[in-house]
Amino acid sequence: MVMTANREEQAVATVRFLTKPTARVQRLRDACLDIKSTHSIERARIEARIMRETEGEPLITRRAKVFAAVVREMPIYIFPDEVIVGGTSVRPCCSNIVPGTRKLTRETRVYYHGYVDRSGISGLSRDDIKELKEDLEPYWKEQGRNWFAHYGHNIHGMEKVVKKGFLGIKKEAEGSLARLDLSNPEDFKKVTFLKGVVLAMEAAAEYGQRYAALARELAEKEKDGARKTELLKIAEVCDRVPAHPARTFHEALQSYHFAWLMLTLELYHNVAFALGRMDQYLYPYYEKDIREGRITQEEAQELLDCYILKLNFTGSKLRTICGSIGIGGYKADGNDATNDLSYMFIESMMHIRLADPWFAVHVHSKSPDEFLIKAAELASLGTGHPQFLNSDVGVAQILARGSLGGPGPTLEDARMASNVGCLELVVPGKDSGYLYIAMDNLALALELALNNGVRRTDGQKIGAETGDPRKFTSFEEVQEAFRKQVEFKRINTQTTGNFLEQRIIDLYPMVYESALIEDCIEKGLCREEGGAHYNHNTGSTEVGSSDAADSLAAIKKLVFDEKKISMAQLCDALKHNFEGYEDIRKMCLEAPKFGNDIDYVDELKAWVLHQWATEFVKLTNLRGGHGCPGGSSETSYIPRGKEVGALPSGRLAGEPLAPAASPCAGKDVNGVTAVLKSMGKVDGTEILAGLSLTCRIDPGMFKNEQGIKRLADMIRVFVDQKVFHLQLNVTSSDTLKAAQKVPDEYKDLMVKIAGHNAYFTALTREMQDSIIARTEHGL
């Protein structure tokens, strides 16, 4: 078993490995850790050429031709030792640059949303940089095509590709074309999109053939007989998929990977394109191969290990955002979905111990004990994997979308949902994907309520006028002012969302992606124009809800219940960042804090999130769908904290906020069960995209098997309390501090931020310190 200096040794003895990682897997893991991130302009170069050549043609046609050219022309590679092939750029761990969005510098440290980019301009030649600055960037600017957020956050129909092949989907589009009545104006409008799908599917079907040819070319030069056989096997698999339906487990896994990575080839970056519950989609192929003797369990495990490793070779290592994988959950009939592959995926994550994929274990009231034990063993390794998602709450979230209008999700679809991005749920192959248009700072909303719409940090009036807080005579007036600030934010967000969505429609409709979403081909509409089966995915997430709740609790207790201070005194203290008001700050800090199973404050946390959720579900999109508030605050809790002055919770101006649903750092002092009970008082169903809850666990809890059992029992509590999401950092403060001192010895040390994994040493010092500041719980 591969171990590095950063792992918490005490956990190892308690973990039961089903198999050992093979020598191949160990070599690939070591190679991945050693590879440096680089950049390429090849993707941008191809797009610029095709867009210039096709000026005057319909935009859908141009986008389809760009995709076809990228798939056919991007340089490809087969890395030594790998048996699952395919990448999104010209080399492993390489990012495709979008012109005009990256400041080119040879400086070794560039800060990006809490991460430290040490790659500089690695991978770019002087000629590349000259071409980028003098040709590509001016063209992008001329076309108005500077980078902007796209939808992403979706699970596409990769299972459909595995079952039908791209030639089968092409035939489906051709059938829709043949049924059109071109004398009907509505049918005539569909022609361009459907022809674009045909063009894209033809190119996608050829993708495997390129790798088959490369594998045979390498086999001819290969002197090692075993590797030559492997390369010829790769060629055989790629001759078949993704053009045709997969027949074996190896073919299904390779076809799935090809279908997924071409999403990134169409859109430069992986915008949280998720992979879904792969244990469900792949199990029929695995079971058939095992039953018919084509593969052993050990061989299948190595294939899965190589696949998981492959995800870590895809895209930049700076900020991992490769596909999220879910396992477990429910079957469509409501029974437990756990199967042999569920355990094997966990085993792969235990073997690999790298940041990608963002791995989720879907649990519920029927999950078997052995499954929870296995997931707890993975968690004990301190890799940040897995995150736990409560399927009982998740099914209710999906069904609740039916109250928003439009086609309501079926119970079967709700049970088959899986996580995208950090934790949000979609129905695989049927949803349009989340278009995130807002990060709602609820701590700032409270500040605006206590300052009549004016932000303290710069004196700008950015909120609604809700009255002079010094004149508030009841706690209900404070609450109403907060509610109005949230409403004001939602109205402004709607305008921003309309603009962003229309810009995407005008500039970047996705043809390949739409073909993998149900109903787009039938309707003859791309996803951006409403072709998807489900469209309720306008996204907004929050930060600082715990700060707002803790602050409201302090106001209620100190001003209105106990009358120890007046609103005027509190406002003066906040204005001066508590300087000269240390006695008031002490009282504020001693007021109840969320995360300790105290109804007084927990009910206010539930109230804050209820105001936000019920307001932001009113958001509408241009596709006829509504808002699904929820998600992760990611790293924003630090920069968003800089926008907020002192708060009644006792927090000083500029300090980090609470990430997503988590308690404020260091304020949860009654144990992790108390945190779960506090979060259980929030209505998890109405927050349609869920909220991220992160806790730290002392790794010393896993010195024996009882620690694993206690963690599994805690997950039962998590399920029973109807909390939707939980992720754990099982790494000691001593280890984190050691990594700050000697980062090169801890290059694979991972932590959970607020929904996603990050390499600890790739974070800024400020972000690292914020993680260390979180409470370290026992079990």
Poorly predicted segments = 1-10, 107-112
Helix content range? 40-55%
What percentage of the residues does DSSP assign to strands (E)?
Answer: 5-15%
The radius of gyration over CA amounts to 26 Å
Order of strands across the main sheet:
7-8-9-10-16-15-19
Largest sheet: 7 strands, mixed
Instruction: Determine the number of helices (DSSP H or I, runs of at least 4 residues).
Output: 28
Measure the end-to-end span. 27 Å
Mean pLDDT: 92
- Morphology: globular
Given helix and strand content, the structural type is alpha/beta
Number-wise, the strands total 19
Number of domains: 3
Structure commentary:
It is a single chain. The protein has about 775 residues and is α/β, with parallel strands linked by helices. The protein folds into three domains: about 1-35 and about 270-280 and about 295-430 and about 695-779, no CATH class; about 40-120 and about 140-270, no CATH class; about 435-690, no CATH class. The protein has 28 helices and 19 strands. The strands form seven sheets. A seven-stranded mixed sheet has the order 7-8-9-10-16-15-19. A two-stranded parallel sheet has the order 1-2. A two-stranded antiparallel ribbon has the order 3-4. The longest helix has about 35 residues, at about 475-505. The chain is globular and about 80 Å long. The chain starts with 8 loop residues before the first helix and ends with a strand. The relative contact order is 0.11. Mean pLDDT is about 90; it is low at about 1-10 and about 105-110.
